[in-house]
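Box 3.1 — From sequence to structure: Cytochrome P450
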Amino acid sequence: MNSKATIPETLSILKIGLDFQTGVYASFAIVLYLYLKHRKNASRLPLPPGPKKLPLVGNLLDMPKSYEWLTFQKWAQELGSDIIHLNMAGTSIVVLDSEEAANDLLEKRSSLYSSRARMPMVNELMGWSFNLGSMPYGDSWREHRRCITREFHPNAAARFQPHVHKATHGLLRRLLDEHDDVLDSLRQMAGETIMSVAYGLDVQEKEDPYILAAQRGTGPLTAAAVPGAFLVDALPILKYVPEWMPFAGFQRKAKEWRKCADTMLNLPYDAAMRNIKAGEYTPSFLSYSLENIDEKGDAAHQNFVIKNTAGSMFIAGSDTTVSAIGTCILGLLSNPEAFKKAREEIDRVIGTERLPNFKDEESLPYITAVMKEGLRWRVVGPISQTIPITHKLFAKYHYQVSHIILKLKMSIEATGSLRVRS
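Predicted structure (token representation):
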């Protein structure tokens, strides 16, 4: 038997050895970092109550994979506190579970708590830094916000009502023909509305490439934005770990998901720009914004802001629209008396010869109340965006500047019962 290894075999053995050594050193460095971070965060002043924490990792292993707001609410009830504290491998999370706590911190001190927490996985690795909803407060955020409010203030937003009418009528036809696929019909309507309003694009009835690209882009975002979903959010230094490392699966996922985000951002924008340059386009947020570009300013940068803002619209309006309308349907089906009153009001005001439109809103107070109650009854976004803490003392508790805040909107805005008042 030949005991001599070939050169490729020798190199392979050396690589395995180096990978193992690198993994050991990296693991040791992570443990040391967690220990030092834990000691740095130690304080003589009390923290808010929270579930029992393990050494170093804290509550990282306690975090649910879905419906996390229900777990937060359960912990708050068990601890008898409207403010609870979680430790995610050294990064603290403060959860607010009452209107009083939220108002004291987020309304009365809004100048201190108007930003967004750093999310390395989402913004830095997955490429979602363009999203207005996750931008930190500052000049860039203000610039993007001006861009969207200029085209969507109440008077200007009326220009987009024909887009909504068209998508809504399409939804009603689909519900008549395919009444078993209500959620799919709602998703199609939401996607059609956003693509039309944002870019002036017409979409296909099924398997539309723009809607599919947007869904593939936002799907991973929903999972990655959950606090504690990825260790790199608690240990930002991990973003520098090479993707070939044994425990760097998050890097490989981020690389794949970044491609989805890029496609979502660029595919509809490029198509809309081709239509605009050809002079064959439907007026939209994009076309109106391009008309308002300041010729004395940096045109390329203004285009960049417009593109980012348009790209943020699907994540802001797709699932929220589906959830809001779906909740109203559920509420009406579970409350026949409210359904009967709503139908009677439409028949009395509109008749049976046409469908309601925006001009009828003031004449339909009960329908308006039903929609508002649906938003309150089952909150579309049960948890607020993560907010970084910049002040150290509140409500007799001590916080570190590295803490972030989550507001449980479900607890604050909903009681679990359906109430409709005309």
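Summary of the box: The two ends are 91 Å apart (CA to CA).
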